[in-house]
Write a structure and sequence with these properties.
Helices cover 74% and strands 0% of the residues.
């Protein structure tokens, strides 16, 4: 049973460290899930959804290590890993159809999906799995920091999105934008020294 708790804790830690290392990539996963037709109306809620998602993981870790109630840990952790698995698989499918800037995104989403799958299997098959409180507190701290990083980067993406939407609303579709006229600048006066 001890090996299951170690692997389960590792699944949470891998996701926290991956998200911290890649500056909160979870918003990318969430933004690929939201349909573009609904995005304009729900984009403001994505940072809160991300905090709620990570809250499921931290509550599960609390019940695994501090309160030692496996049934509750299983409920919260199962939902956390199901959302992580479905979200990362959906994002993988989305980015396979669209060009991406870097193949690292596929590796990160694959890591997220595989760690979610392993964590979900352990929760479904395991009975009475518990974690020592000290590693649980470390994992809670890392996952919480990861959650806030993701929420802040999501908020930045949402703000950027709404700025672009507002600019497009105020600009006619057939408008020509002139940035500036080119100005003739004389060449620099060069002098030769003797």
């Amino acid at each position: 049973m001890r090996w299951k708790s170690g692997i389960l804790l590792a699944c949470f830690m891998v996701q926290a460290v991956v998200n911290l290392a890649f500056y909160g990539f979870v918003p990318v996963m969430f933004f690929s899930i939201v349909p573009s037709s609904a995005y304009r109306h729900v984009a403001w809620a994505v940072p809160f959804l991300i905090l709620g998602y990570f809250a499921l993981g931290t509550i599960s870790l609390y019940y695994l290590g501090i309160a030692t109630n496996f049934k509750r840990a299983k409920k919260f952790g199962g939902v956390y890993f199901v959302f992580g698995l479905l979200g990362s698989l959906w994002a993988l499918l989305y980015f396979m159809r669209t060009p991406v800037e870097t193949p690292v995104l596929f590796a990160v989403l694959g890591t997220w999906a595989s760690s979610s799958l392993v964590g979900l299997i352990i929760f479904l098959k395991g009975k009475g799995v518990s974690v020592h409180p000290a590693p649980s507190v470390i994992a809670i701290t890392l996952l919480s920091a990861s959650a806030f990083l993701s929420a802040f980067s999501a908020q930045w993406l949402v703000s950027d999105y709404y700025v672009h939407v507002k600019m497009e609303e105020n600009m006619p579709k057939n408008a020509t934008i002139i940035v500036a006229y080119p100005e003739q600048v004389p060449p620099p006066n060069t002098t030769t020294s003797s």
